[in-house]
Design a protein that fits this description.
It is built from nine helices and no strands. It has about 260 residues and is mainly alpha-helical. It folds into two domains: about 90 residues, no CATH class; about 170 residues, no CATH class.
């Protein structure tokens, strides 16, 4: 029964994340106003029965009931991704404060990844909200464990994450003679460092994100979708690598140590 509840809870959170993804980058709307969801094409409010995660999209065949404009498939994909990741976190952490921390982390990374992919920005409001929310939960975990060091490692992770990517950005800009990385990526890395810790998590996030970014970027350039001068957002790769490390970081690190003969 708990699995079912977490799945539907994930769908509901994913529906809210869709609101954040659409509204946060736009100056003419906010999370709170207008109160009801609306069609981006005709601006008509969406009825409650047409706003059920995934199901409404399927029943409406991906079209607005009012104007029949096509609804982006991104909406149900975000909802399903959120629900699936929530289930994965429950399987990995169980009903613990670490599970709550993981849910908060996922709920931050998903909108960051999509907004950066669409608009090439990482909104400060998500970063600040994440740091505040994460601090509250991390303090709860540190209190539960009676380990002040747990809190300190997260603070060290945030500082190390931001500083490391800032250094990469400075060196990259000097080599390429153009801006190599945005400030949003640096802030995101600080957020990731806070939620995951410093070592070896940050090293794995940087490694996996750089590798996946290079592969995807090469494919996009070779296929003609992007040119060599086209910007490619780094946020989605950082977010994906962070989820990978969150779930399987320990196993991957042990496998790496065995591979290089250090374990």
């Amino acid at each position: 029964m708990m699995w079912v509840f977490i799945f539907f809870f994930g769908l509901a959170v994913g529906s809210f994340l869709n609101v954040c993804i659409y509204r946060i980058p736009r100056a003419d709307v906010s999370i709170h106003s207008p109160r009801r969801s609306f069609c981006p094409e005709c601006s008509n409010p969406i009825n409650v029965y047409d706003n059920i995660p995934v199901l409404s999209y399927l029943l409406l065949r991906g079209k607005c009931r009012q104007c029949r404009a096509r609804i982006s498939v991104l909406y149900p994909l975000v909802e399903l991704a959120t629900a699936g990741l929530f289930l994965g976190m429950y399987y990995h952490f169980g009903l613990t404060l670490e599970f709550l921390l993981a849910l908060a982390f996922i709920s931050l990374l998903l909108p960051i990844a999509v907004i950066d992919a669409q608009h090439y920005i990482i909104p400060n409001v998500i970063i600040v909200t994440g740091l505040v929310l994460g601090l509250v939960i991390v303090c709860g975990i540190a209190y539960q464990r009676s380990e002040v060091w747990y809190l300190l490692t997260r603070i060290i992770g945030a500082v190390a994450g931001g500083a490391t990517l800032w250094l990469v950005a400075v060196i990259g800009s000097a080599i390429l003679r153009k801006k190599a990385m945005g400030g949003g990526d640096i802030k995101l890395m600080a957020l990731i460092g806070f939620f995951l810790g410093a070592w070896p998590e940050l090293a794995m996030v940087i490694g996996f994100s750089a590798l996946s970014g290079a592969v995807v970027g090469t494919v996009l350039i070779v296929s003609g979708v992007k040119s060599r001068q086209s910007p490619i957002p780094y946020g989605p790769f950082l977010a994906g690598a962070a989820v990978l490390v969150l779930l399987w970081g320990d196993r991957l690190w042990r496998a790496y140590l065995q591979f290089v003969g250090w374990n």
